[in-house]
Design goal:
The complex is a heterodimer of chains A (about 260) and B (about 170). With about 260 residues, chain A is mainly beta. Chain A contains 2 helices and 21 strands. In chain A, the strands form 7 sheets. Chain A has a 4-stranded antiparallel β-sheet with strand order 9-10-13-14, with no helix packed on it. The radius of gyration of chain A is 20 Å and the shape is globular. The termini of chain B are far apart. By secondary structure, chain B is mainly alpha-helical. In chain B, helix 3 crosses helix 6 and helix 5 packs across helix 6. Chain B has 7 helices and no strands. The chains are: A mainly beta (about 260), B mainly alpha (about 170).
Chain lengths: ~260, ~170
């Protein structure tokens, strides 16, 4: 990939801390780290050492609550994988826009119990939307387009050779967007929230199929999967405060949807 | 004399009309306990229950133990997480104080560890007494007004109804 220091073999990864890292894949050297989400807990990445440059005021302090820390504990993105399309050269990142208040406590190590000395409450970041789907141009180091999603995005993305990108939302919409413009091409409402990885395959009949699991859960969907109580903002390590409305928007489920693409 | 009687009546009526315009602030003197879906069984409540259940000292000790023993990690402050919520009306193994104490002592399937040997019997009961306050089962005047730790949540001495009203100002 062309970089500031000439053509380099690279690896590109969207970090949880909100930076899009471009690294030399032979040495690991960080060539660039550009924010792709809202960050106020760090100033950037030191390219010499590769270390994050934290903002002092947002560092955890024992016995104190530090407010408005962005991104929140799950990061600017959580587990859900991004997709890369060789056709457009873009990286498609389904991710979240959450900030948190974080209290730091003394943690005691007791085998079999959670070893976390934090009391956390999460909420939507700037803009009020909790999810965002970003298409990132790694060469220009800026976003090509972004789609705001009200609920956190917990489903991975799938980019196809046909110039279509698929992802799901936590209220059950399975969406197909144009890989270049981000324009919504098609959507389908499933009975439960989507946090599963969409896949594409060619069936024995030669047709292209798209499959996705619908069934809400995970950290973001714990309020439904574990039937948590939203009156306590710290439920599910503070995630419930940001997903209080989820039980009104979708229900528990578990269904595999397979769609045949037009010939 | 005859003219004073009607005058005082008029005065009384005016006062009554004025008073009806004032709404007294409504407060609940104690939280409304939630019903329990799990029957508490035929066994009579242990005699120790009364000593712990409404005792402010034991409840506040239990509150500290709740944080110290990492109950918070899985159950949060009653809303749950990896573990089930403790502030609602669902109890898999019973919501009576002696049943909660048994759960803490024995541990339960799917992740609840046994705290026997880590806590004294006295501490287990203090912890169980505090767990009961999360679902508003205990008198408000026995519950601590604030916690020892940093806190993101309303004090437990508030009723759950008051908590909801605070967050959502629109009338129900």
């Amino acid at each position: 990939m062309p970089t500031a220091s000439g053509r380099r073999p690279v690896l590109v990864r969207p970090g949880r801390n909100g930076y899009m890292y471009v690294q030399d894949r032979r040495t690991g050297q960080v060539l660039s780290a550009t924010p792709y989400g809202f960050i106020n807990s760090s100033k950037g990445v030191d390219l010499k050492s590769g270390h994050l440059l934290p903002v002092k005021a947002k560092e955890p302090r024992m016995g104190r609550v530090v407010r408005n820390v962005c991104p929140a504990a799950p990061g600017a993105k959580d587990w859900n994988p991004s997709a890369f399309s060789p056709a457009t050269g873009l990286i498609y990142i389904p991710h979240i826009n959450l900030c948190m208040d974080m209290g730091t406590l003394e943690a005691n190590y007791i085998a079999g119990t959670l070893y976390v000395g934090a009391e956390v409450k999460m909420y939507a970041g700037p803009g009020g939307h909790r999810g965002i789907f970003t298409a990132w141009d790694p060469i220009r180091r800026r976003k090509a387009f972004a789609i705001k999603e009200d609920l956190p995005l917990w489903s991975p993305a799938l980019a196809t050779a046909g110039g279509v990108v698929f992802y799901g939302t936590m209220d059950g919409w399975f969406k197909a967007i144009d890989a270049r413009s981000g324009k919504l091409l098609w959507r389908f409402k499933t009975a439960s929230g989507i946090i599963g990885q969409p896949i594409s395959y060619r069936g024995p009949d030669g047709r292209q199929y798209i499959a996705v699991m619908s069934g809400v859960g995970g950290w973001a969907g714990a309020i439904i999967a574990n039937q948590l109580d939203s009156r306590d903002p710290t439920s599910a390590l503070g995630f419930v405060n940001a997903t209080k409305d989820l039980p009104k928007r979708t229900a528990a489920g578990g269904r595999l949807h397979v769609f045949a693409l037009p010939r | 004399m005859s003219s004073r009687f009607p005058a005082s009546l008029v005065g009384f009526a005016a006062a009554a009309a004025l008073l009806s315009g004032c709404d007294r602030e409504e407060r609940q003197s104690r939280p409304k306990p939630f019903g329990e879906t799990v029957p508490s069984g035929d066994t009579p409540l242990e005699v120790r229950a009364a000593a712990y259940e409404r005792n402010a000292f034991h409840i506040s000790q239990g509150q500290r133990l709740y944080s110290w023993m990492n109950c918070v990690g899985c159950h949060a402050f009653g809303g749950g997480g990896m573990g089930p919520p403790l502030m609602d009306d669902k109890w898999r193994y019973g919501g009576r104080i002696d049943q909660i104490a048994a759960t803490i002592n024995e541990g339960r399937r799917n992740g609840m560890p046994s705290f026997r040997g880590r806590l004294s019997e006295d501490q287990v009961w203090q912890l169980a007494a505090f767990v009961r306050t999360l679902s508003g089962q205990t008198r408000k005047d026995a519950v601590a007004g604030r916690t020892d730790d940093v806190s993101n949540r309303p004090p437990l001495s508030q009723t759950v109804e008051e908590t909801i009203r605070q967050e959502d100002p629109t009338p129900q």
